[in-house]
Design brief:
Elements (H helix, E strand, L loop, with lengths): L2 H4 L6 H18 L4 H23 L3 H27 L6 H28 L4 E3 L11 H16 L7 E3 L2 H63 L11
Antiparallel strand pairs: 1-2
Helix pairs in contact: 2-3, 3-4, 4-5, 5-6, 5-7
Length: about 240
């Protein structure tokens, strides 16, 4: 949402990179309790942040390619970790809903980075709708704004971007993103609903089992008391008399 504003100078490149850096740091903190996930995300973040900041200081194809490559790895890792947390067994709460929304937005950013990465490797993989080269779109910032717009219009199936995919790889990326944009919300909603129903059934079973155990214990105590009341008092023997 911030990238299109950068094209008119409202948000600068440094501010956007700081937002992306905070995104990575928050992802690291979110998985800090999981040792393996923490190690993976720390390693990727350690390579991503310097490479992307270096691309701002030293503009060039090589640094930009490395920056977007590590950016793709970091976002994909965050998506995988968040999905594991969203779909784990348990009750559906507000945090899981937030995680699902974050995954959907991260998918748009992931594909935007992927489009830019493909365009850096193959400059003619994507062109402007006016049949001009992407190099005529302006600066790197302006170009990335267009890729963000392309990604989210494809993800939401609006399809009103001014960039056209002409390379088979780029077209495949567009098709996959459009399919994910349609299937992800439906599958996610169905999965969350089924998990909520399953969680309620488990709670109901546990509640019924607890009530059954409590009723059984009360009945047993009542039966024991009745047995005690029916037991005759011991009579004195004749010899004792």
């Amino acid at each position: 949402m911030l990238y299109p504003l950068g094209e008119i100078g409202v948000v600068g490149d440094l501010a956007l990179e700081l937002v992306f850096t905070l995104l990575l740091i928050s992802g690291v903190m979110a998985v800090s309790r999981k040792r393996m996930a923490r190690l993976v995300i720390f390693t990727i973040a350690a390579a991503t942040i310097p490479s992307r900041l270096s691309a701002l200081i030293y503009p060039g194809t090589l640094m930009a390619t490395l920056g977007y490559f590590f950016g793709i790895l970091s976002i994909a890792s965050l998506i995988g970790i968040i999905l594991i947390e969203v779909f784990r067994e348990g009750e559906i709460n507000y945090h899981r809903i937030q995680g699902a929304i974050a995954v959907y937005l991260l998918l748009g950013i992931l594909w935007a980075f992927s489009y830019r990465f493909v365009a850096l490797i193959e400059p003619n993989a994507l062109i402007l709708s006016t049949h001009r080269s992407l190099s005529e779109a302006g600066s790197e910032r302006a170009l990335m704004h267009k890729f963000i717009y392309l990604s989210f219009t494809t993800l939401t199936t609006i399809g009103s971007s001014d960039i056209v995919a002409v390379n088979p790889l780029a077209r495949s990326l567009v098709i996959v993103e459009a399919l994910i944009g349609q299937l992800f919300p439906a599958i996610l909603l169905a999965r969350l609903v089924s998990m909520q129903v399953s969680s309620r059934e488990n709670r109901s079973k546990k509640s019924d089992l607890h009530e059954s155990t409590t009723d059984h214990r009360l009945n047993q105590e009542l039966s024991d008391r009745q047995q005690e009341n029916l037991t005759p008092f011991p009579t004195r023997s004749k010899q004792a008399v």
